[in-house]
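User: Structure tokens for both sequences below?

Assistant:
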Amino acid sequence: MNPFKAYSGLCRDVYVLFFARIVNHMGNFVYVFLTLFLTQKMGYSKETAGIYVMLCSLMPLIGTMVGGKIGDHFGRKNTMLTFFLISAILKGTCGFLSISLYIPVLVVISSFFMGGIGPLNRAIVMDLTSGESRKKAISLMYLGLNFGAAIGPLLAGFLFEKYTSWIFWGDCLTSFVAILMIFFYVNESLPTEEQINDEESIPYAERAEKGTVIDALLKRPVLIIFGLLGLLVNSIYAQHSFAIPLQLDEIFVGKGAQVFGYMMSFNAFIVIIFTTFLLELTKKNQAINNVVMGAVFYGIGFGMLCFVNSIFLLMISVFIWTIGEILFATNYFLYTSNHSPITHRGRFNAIFMSTWRGGYALGPLLSGFFISRYNIRLLWIICLITAGILAVAYYFLGLLEKKQIKKVSFEEN
């Protein structure tokens, strides 16, 4: 199968956003090595470093909401570039400060503006695509993120010891390259009044809404349930970076970190190789049906960790839950995109990106409490059962949506 053919037919703007995402994530140095920078270079305690890392996780949630709202009113491209530029300048400034108390403060502020970029990027993709092309575009964006993420940490690891300032300058420069690409080759996509009023060519779930984002959300109860279930699914996925390293330390004494590094590299490899294949294989499925399959693969992949005692079994587990990751990540945002009103896309993306990220906070919190009281292997049985329940819930949610669609079609006719 030709991977380029699978993504053919998209507009130029989407391809530019794809390459800009690769470049930007290739230079995503600062946040990857923030903990080590604060403890090794600045001499902060683990507790103090943890506070700053936590703030860098919380601030993007606020930035996401602010960026989404501003973008819906003043332009998605313009707002995204403004947030992008401020974030780049703040990180670049850190490179000139050597070891300064201002650095962690600037990084935290920068993370706020970085948070506003994601929902606007996705809103532009939604504005420019529909139907099958939207599914291709979302899959392509996900692939671009993973291409960049596979390279960025390797480059950052090389720079960290001897060229620490370039952690900040490199992040800043790649951001500027991405900014220039978007500035010159991506058009503003904020819908015009004519497009907003053209209900004939807009799917029912994406038609313009008046009022606040809360008003628009309350008209979509199925979408609200979908997002809340996604938070729980992502709390299972979050165990790949929390509970799995703890278990690897128990199994491979003294080599847990090394094995975890191999595991994450294998995960990135699977994403890059299989995303296009799965796009083609599942392109005729409804997004919610692919989400159901993603939850099932999560259940099997994480559930079998209860019995893992070798690298071979570990990698089989990683392969299975990574397939679930691809199916869930691409189709979660496809579903929410297809149910977001044209007038509120920035804000809807902000909300569902927040529930998505919320799972990364909820998962370690719950599993940390559980592991401290019970055997870590029992956690994987809980993940298996929970994923199964969530898969069934998504299945019935899909049936409920079909009934609603039939009802709307009947009323319109």
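Moving on to the next sequence.
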Amino acid sequence: MEICAIVLAAGKGSRMKSKHHKGTHKVCGKEMINILIDKLRASNVSDINLVVGEHKEEIINVTKDRGVSYSTQEEQLGTGHAVLCSQEFLKDKKGSVLIFACDTPLFKKESIISLIKTHESEKNAITFVTSFFEDPLSYGRIIRKNGEVSLIREAKDCTPEELLIKEVNTSIYCIDIDFLLNGLKKINNSNAQNEFYLTDLIEIGNKENVKIGTIQVENKEVIGVDSRKQLYYANKLLREEILDFHMNNGVTILDCESTYIDVDVKIGMDTIIYPNVHICGKSIIGEECEILPNTKIVDTQIGNNTKIESSVIYESKVGENTSVGPFAYLRPNSIIGDRVKVGDFVEIKNATIGNETKISHLSYVGDASVGENCNLGCGIVTVNYDGKKKHKTIIGDKSFVGCNVNLVAPVVVGENSYIAAGTTVTEKVDSNSLAIGRCRQTNIKNWVKK
């Protein structure tokens, strides 16, 4: 059976108190709407339509690389009306359609698959997800007769007795497309909100004697994120799930309360994550690494057996058996080789550092290519900016750059060369050469007394 999906993302989300669409707010490093889209794709649902309205440009901008299509709901007249706005997407389609709200980032891929399988195996016209809450608040209540679903009543339309029901609708559906398109024509807005409710399809389905089924999931999977407090709670729950996943796959996490790992991060077994670590974006950490306290790693690949201590790394690549930090700063497009030492208070930007090279402390290496087995002393600076343009420094293999050296780019240092401490290099240094560029020391006796 063909399965497509509609994600409802047209609402204002006013309770979020934000200038941005609620679906674009991030949970564990990824926009809520993209978390849902990626889970749908992982469940083999590839044909996805987003119903947009408020802030539609922002939603389109954050989802434009996800291969989805868009429908527009100009007026927010309820969930039934929102789905009706996607009828061009549904036209000529057969099979069934999943319907989700955009603010359900905790719903699991396994539950999506279970929903589809139940819908198919039971040959239902409608299958939807329910859950139980001790305090159901504004969730629609599931009204059952003799154990079968009779209807879904929105909270504002419930009687006091119905409000005591703890089984709720989660607004997650799998519906036969033909039944959906026919049923939408029969929905009216005779309710407290004067809106067209998608939930009315349950009552319509019962009147037409079609099969209606449900699956139940844990309530934490279906918590909608409509406010900052719920956003915090969603982050907390998903973070716990992420940390459990990594620990179950052989990663040691010493303090879950102070460890933050984004949803797309990958970590190899036997790696140890120390307290107060942030690993963000699509970072990949190898096996048997140590990520020590006060480290932030963003969109970076780190090889096996590498140690990162109290450092910040953005959009870079670090090799195997390498150590970085403490207090190093690797800015975007830094490529660090194997068995390299990047020491304390070293900043690297848009530079390639060859294997077995050491930059031990207090140095800036920007817009540079440093060869293998080099030693860059304390306080060296690649002077890469002339006030208008950035220029490149090239240092050959097996070179030694002494302390407090300025390399004024563009400049080339040949392989196996020595740069004496205190030198300012402005011209090419040939291979196997010694470069000295400083004043000869002069001592004037009794100068202080005079």
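User: Anything stand out in the second?

Assistant: The first strand starts at residue 3 and ends at 9.
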